[in-house]
Amino acid sequence: MDRNTLLLFAGIGGILLLASLIGWLLKHRAGPGPHPVIDNLNARINAWWAMVLVIGFAFLFGNTGVVVLFYCVSFYALREFMTLTPTRRSDYPALVAAFYFALPMQYLLIGIGWYGLFAIFIPVYLFLLLPILSSLGGDTTRFLERTSKVQWGLMIAVYCISTVPALLTLEIAGYEGRNLLLIAWLVIVVQISDVLQYVCGKLAGKRKIAPNLSPSKTVEGFFGGVALATLIGASLYWITPFAFWQAGLFALLVCLLGFAGGLVMSAIKRDRGVKDWGHMIEGHGGMLDRLDSVCFAAPVFFHMVRYWWG
């Protein structure tokens, strides 16, 4: 890790220490016994400690560590998605291809930096291969619906998430060897936007944006959270190849895409009749519950940065 990376993690550690202290004080003042809101807050803080430590550990191993980390993230995210998606026996060849061919191949292509193939491998070749494999079983019951679910799961959990470590493949003049910081910037801005939208919504939220999809999202929370996250993203321009105003525009873009992604993923959960994708992360639900915003922001961010700077 270079100096800027260490400073960034030191700052994140300081914020988490402050949050842990606030959580402890709230729990101490509330007295013994269960307190759902405070207990949930402390569970989320502890989960953030774990996630930051895992990401920091991966950063210690450089590009290889980050690619392996996101490979594991995609595996668990795809598993969560497919667990909530009803399948039939004739879908097994497509599922095997998704888990044991498409997933490792996508990250292998990113590991060797073959942009020309990893950019279209899943959206083109796998989208054609999966329905072929499903049709071999001869089962036509809800065929289009079943095939699209596997395709959509692969697109979200593998292709979209893989564009985060794909930032390592970019060759940006004057920014050589610092692409890990670009990943850190993207994850921080998108995640802190979610947190600030929630906090602003709790403090001042009155008008709900999409009550049928996500009752906790409000107009006030959306504008307040996106505005604050955009300012934070702009203030972190020093860890990116962008100028202050460019970092602000990119931060606004990924915040808006992250919000839209959260709505889409909430719609899928409501369709499946569940509140969370899973229970892997205490206080945060499943892997996809934390990455729904990143899934939609990362691909657009990657391709725009590659177009303008790569």
Fold and architecture overview:
- The chain has 310 residues and is mainly α.
- Helix content is 74%, strand content 0%.
- It has 11 helices and no strands.
- It has helices at residues 3-30, 36-60, 62-83, 92-111, 115-118, 121-135, 143-162, 179-204, 219-235, 244-272, 287-308.
- The longest helix is centred in the C-terminal third of the chain and has 29 residues, at 244-272.
- It is globular, with a radius of gyration of 20 Å.
How would you summarize the topology of this molecule?
Layout: H1 3-30, H2 36-60, H3 62-83, H4 92-111, H5 115-118, H6 121-135, H7 143-162, H8 179-204, H9 219-235, H10 244-272, H11 287-308
Pfam families: CTP_transf_1 (PF01148)
Protein name: Phosphatidate cytidylyltransferase
GO molecular function, one term: nucleotidyltransferase activity
Descriptive key words:
nucleotidyltransferase; transferase; mainly alpha; transmembrane helix; 310 residues; transmembrane; membrane
Give the gist of this structure.
The chain is built from 11 helices and no strands.
Total count of strands: 0
Query: Which range does the strand content fall in?
Result: under 5%
- Uncertain segments are none
Rounded to an integer in angstroms, the radius of gyration calculated over CA atoms is 20 Å
